[in-house]
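Cont'd.
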Amino acid sequence: MASDTLATTAPRSDAEISGLDALEIAGQEKAATRASRIWAATWPKVAALALAIGLWQAVVWTGWKDSWALPGPAVVFADLWHYLLSASLWEGLATTARRAVVGFAAAVAVGLVLGLGVARVKVLRAALGSMITALQTMPSIAWFPLAILLFQLSEQAIFFVVVLGAAPSVANGVIHGVDYVPPLLVRAGRNVGARGLNLYRYVIAPAALPAIVAGLKQGWAFAWRSLMAGELLVVIAEKTSIGAQLTYARDFSDAPRLMAIMIVILVVGLLVDAAFGAADKAIRRRWGVLDQAGN
Amino acid sequence: MTSTTTTPRSATGQVALRGVTKVYGRGENAVLALDGVSLDVAPGEFVCLVGASGCGKSTLLNLVAGLDRVSGGQIDAGEGVNPGLMFQESALFPWLTVEGNVEVPLKLRGLPRAERRERVAELLRTVHLADFGRKRPHELSGGMRQRVALARTLALDTPVLLMDEPFGALDAMTRDILHDELERIWSERRLTVLFVTHNVREAARLADRIILLSSRPGRIIYSTGVDVPRPRRIDSPEIAAIAAEVTDRLRTEVGRHGQ
């Protein structure tokens, strides 16, 4: 610091200002190596997984159910290995992933438009606000009989239910986000010249982003559940999918394959959820609202 | 009439309020926040508005800033002038860096990227934060955040600065520094400042003229010039004497509501 270049005319030296700045923001840096952070986040998960598999094995050893109904972890993981190397998994996964992406994207589009409309237009809020929440409480599987009547056993029936399952969560995220934009930021934005559409672009959209991402995350969870329910019920013969294979495994009483597929479904759900979690965390870190206790 | 001048730079910074009235609500629930406030602020003048709670100080600034509409009377801040407004909280955008925050007004005015970068660097130097452009608001102290907010407001290139208790949440030492900084920037840029505070000493330290507002409804009840040469110190006897005088008037006004 240039403490020896005190300006004699200025009432306050630059060094004094930067000195105070340095004092005030000191001690904010946090030191933790990447490896230790990853380890701290990983070992409880690994331990919990080991415990769950151990319990499963213990139940199998008690002989509570016959092994054709409840196979042990070793048998299931061996089958999972074969399943991972088979073409049928990847074909099924491709169909399922495509449906998930298309269905979720449609749900996001519907949810964003609906949420923005409800958040900004009073009449729409009065008309649809509580209905969106009501839709969220509707178990998505209850939509399938109607969907099958409307669209027969087709992909449209699946999309219909996926969108109905996920869009309300996305819309609620948008409504919540826009509602809770701090009024002070809106005033500041208007004062620096952001009016009309620019106010949305520069202030409201970024301020609402954390809530919107939370809505997307929840929407995804609903979409994935709806999709799995749909694929179990709406089995389209010429198209193999993860859900269809799960149904086949049950039909053929192939318990190891059934459980292997369940593990695949669980892992896919977890991976996408983790991606949303990472996005959420990155945003909160940028915003400076990350809970330090979690690290 | 100066209707031909459209760029803020050429505007003078004169602010004129004529019988400004503001009513909130309707019918029986209507509250008269401001009642016939007339005030002329000369270009380059530093005016402090002082008053107890409920005197409509913040309302007045919102009206001058154009964020709210008058119920009666007129406000003229000059043709094409968009007065800059600062709040007690910095109101920085948490999703942007310091540079990003200062850049927003420049982007909204359509300045090209290269010019924006130059202006941002210049403004951050002005508030002594040249090394903090990449930080995010939450990484800075309260005083630093207010300096970023000041830089962002200066980026509007407006001759009129409206400040709503901007240093109210800061500790005394930081506040002293920011008084000096604001005074320097005000005189360098020949800004017109309308500064709201409930801190009478702060008003005496900064102002060319102190205006005292009554409470419920807000009216101008007292006005005094501060003829103390600058640079000033907040703890000097002259400032203390003026502050004591204004405080007495303020106490009388507050006491009126207790009867």
